[in-house]
């Protein structure tokens, strides 16, 4: 988000914040686009299993010369795993200084959200824990639940997952 100042030196937030909108378990979510490094179509052969990894880790992918853990975000949240269909995508992003991949049902695009247009977080969401929800915006006239990945995936967990991915063997 870029800050622009008026003639009195007051900050004007006219540009808003960019969020990447994606679908997961039948709902629309958004994460801070500034963290996104790359988005790739999910293909089963692009990742390899990680021995001893939690069930929500689909495996490790190889991006930018590094082995990167790919988390099935639906499984991580106690939902049925993401189906490896044509719309499934891996969002590679930097979180707590670590590169991670998040497998989602579909990526819907980038949306700009103005602070004044974001509603307070709901008391409950059928998929996301309330503690990670920043608020609710809109995308294509539909609710977009804005999520803090930093709250969803703590730094120690991200570091552990990245360490285990670095040990993955690729054919």
Report what the structure shows.
The structure is a single chain. By secondary structure, the protein is mainly beta. The protein has one domain (15-166): OB fold (Dihydrolipoamide Acetyltransferase, E2P) (Beta Barrel). Helices cover 12% and strands 44% of the residues. A 6-stranded mixed β-sheet has the order 5-9-10-8-7-6. The longest helix is centred in the last third of the chain and has 12 residues, at 155-166. The protein starts with a strand and ends in a 5-residue tail after the last helix.
CATH topology: OB fold (Dihydrolipoamide Acetyltransferase, E2P)
Q: How far apart are the termini?
A: 41 Å
Name of the top-level CATH class:
Mainly Beta
For the biggest sheet, the summary is: 6 strands, mixed
Low-confidence stretches: none
The number of helical elements comes to 3
* Strand order in the largest sheet: 5-9-10-8-7-6
Q: Helix share of residues?
A: 10-25%
Give the overall shape.
globular
Secondary-structure-based class equals mainly beta
- Domains, number: 1
Strand fraction:
35-45%
CATH superfamily: CheA-289, Domain 4
Descriptive tags:
171 residues, mainly beta, OB fold (Dihydrolipoamide Acetyltransferase, E2P), 6-stranded mixed beta sheet, 5-stranded mixed beta sheet, 12% helix, 44% strand
Quick overview of this protein structure:
The chain is mainly beta.
Itemize the secondary structure elements and their pairings:
Elements: E1 4-5, E2 11-12, E3 17-24, E4 27-32, E5 36-41, E6 47-48, E7 57-63, E8 66-72, H1 73-76, E9 89-95, E10 98-104, E11 106-113, E12 133-139, E13 142-147, H2 149-152, H3 155-166
